[in-house]
Automatic annotation (TrEMBL):
Pfam families: HD. This is bis(5'-nucleosyl)-tetraphosphatase (symmetrical). Residues 31-177 form the HD domain. InterPro entries: Diverse_Catalytic_Enzymes, HD/PDEase_dom, HD_domain, YqeK.
Length: 200
């Protein structure tokens, strides 16, 4: 049971239960439960850093809405809805943020630009992230089920600094991608460069 509710002007009239019903249509149980944990973690971070708790919670709840949408549906949307065709060379790992927001807008009906931007950036980051973007990005990585060393270190950093936690997460993600022979989406590198310049 939870007592979380969202202001309807933020959800275009949808209740949290309506949104949860939509999530369940697109996600298996494990991924859905992860979304609930990221929602909770996002709200906690927003409270801690005095940011918008409802926007943070809503972005956390919906961030992986599009994670399991079939590749064929993604390809159609990328080809027909004005996306950069270079995206076709990537996969759902990248798409579910950048293109996922298209599905969230059209299937769920959430249109708040700040919420959508936070979701759009949650896998790649962006060189100029807002605190809300960083909350979604970090909450995904430090929700309670995350137990790896890098995740624990980011959780610790997030007690005092969102950008420190963001940098730790990026370093871990890049290290993982490179060490497992995976491509790096250019924006992820640009995000890393921007953050490292800020800290140096
Ligand atoms: Fe994700
Ligand atoms: Fe996630």
């Amino acid at each position: 049971m939870t007592d979380i509710t969202y202001p309807t002007e933020l959800t275009n009239g949808l209740s949290r239960d309506d949104i949860i019903a939509r999530l369940k249509e697109r996600l298996d149980d494990a991924r859905f439960e992860h979304c609930l944990r990221v929602e909770k973690t996002s709200r906690k971070l927003a409270k801690r850093f005095d940011e918008d708790i409802d926007r943070a919670g809503l972005a956390g709840l919906l961030h992986d809405y599009a994670k399991q949408i079939p590749v064929t549906e993604y390809r159609q949307v990328i080809q027909n809805e004005g996306f950069d065709q270079a995206l076709l060379a990537y996969g759902r790992g990248i798409w579910h943020g950048m293109v996922g927001v298209w599905f969230i807008e059209h299937e769920v009906g959430i249109t708040d630009p700040l919420v959508l931007q936070a979701i759009e950036r949650h896998t790649t980051g962006a060189p100029t992230m807002t605190p809300l973007d960083e909350i979604t990005f970090v909450a995904d990585f430090i929700e309670p089920a995350r137990k790896l060393d890098g995740e624990v270190a980011a959780r610790k950093a997030a007690e005092t600094s969102l950008s420190d936690a963001t940098l730790i997460e990026l370093q871990n993600t890049l290290t993982y991608l490179v060490s497992t022979n995976k491509v790096v989406y250019p924006q992820t590198l640009l995000t890393y460069n921007a953050l490292i310049r800020q800290t140096n």
